[in-house]
Amino acid sequence: MQKKINFLIYILGILFFSSCAYKLSNKVDTLPKNVKSIFIPVFKNKSSEALIETLFTDAMRSETLRSGYARIVSSETEADAVLNGTIDLVNAVADESVIEAKNTSYLPNNTVLSTSAKVTVDISLVLKKKGSSEVLWSGHFSQSRGYTPPQLTLPTINSANSLYNLSIRRQTLMLLSKDIMQLAFDRMVDNF
C-alpha cells in the first residue's frame, strides 16, 4: 500500500513540475491597444542614401508577417493603426584603421587605404491609431554595422571598384534593416 502511495505521489510530482515550465508567464504579446490590423506605408527618407526606405519598409513588413500578431492591410481605411517610419540618417564612414603603402610598385608612394568602414542608421517609428493623432507607440533606433571596403592589391587582383563598394554597402544596410526592424517590432510588442 505504501508503495502505491509513493508511486502516486511520484507521478503527481512529475505532472506538476513538467507543466509548470510552460506556464511561467501569462503575458500574451500583442501590439499596443490590441491592434490586429496594421497599415505600413513606405517609410520617409531624410537621408542622402537613395532607395533605402524600401529596405526598411520591407524589413518591418516581413517582421510583422513573421510574428503573426497582426495582419498587414493595403490601406489605412482597413487598418486599426498606421505605422509610419522615417529614416533620419544613413552615415558611412571609414574607420581609423589604415594601411600605408610604402615602396610598392603597384600603388603610389604614401598611399593610405582604409581597412574597414562602418554604416550607421538612425530611424524613427510612430504607431498611430487610424484616423487620429493618438500615438500608440513610438521609438527611435540607431545602430551601426561594419564592413570591409574595397582593397587595392596586385593589379590582377584588384577589388577596388564602385560596383563592389555599392554592393557591399547595400548588403550591410540590408542586414542592418533586418536587425533594427526586429528590435523595433519586439519593443513595439512589449510596449517598451
List the helices and strands and how they pair.
Blueprint: H1 2-20, E1 37-39, E2 44-45, H2 52-67, E3 71-72, E4 81-94, E5 98-101, E6 111-114, E7 117-129, E8 135-147, H3 162-189
Parallel strand pairs: 1-3, 1-4, 2-4
Antiparallel strand pairs: 4-7, 5-6, 7-8
What general outline do the C-alpha atoms trace? flat
By secondary-structure content and strand pairing, the structural class works out as alpha/beta
- State the helix count: 3
Distance between the termini: 56 Å
Order of helices and strands: HEEHEEEEEEH
Q: How would you characterize the largest beta sheet?
A: 6 strands, mixed
* Content of β-strand: 25-35%
Helix content: 25-40%
What Rg is obtained from the alpha carbons, in whole angstroms?
26 Å
Low-confidence stretches: 20-27, 154-159
Number of strands: 8
Mean pLDDT: 80
Characterization of this structure:
This protein is α/β, with parallel strands linked by helices and 192 residues long. Helices cover 33% and strands 29% of the residues. The strands form two sheets. Strands 1, 2, 3, 4, 7 and 8 form a six-stranded mixed sheet that branches. The chain has a two-stranded antiparallel ribbon with strand order 5-6. The longest helix has 28 residues, at 162-189.
Short description:
The chain is of the alpha/beta class.
Spell out the key features of this protein.
alpha/beta, two-stranded antiparallel sheet, 192 residues, six-stranded mixed sheet
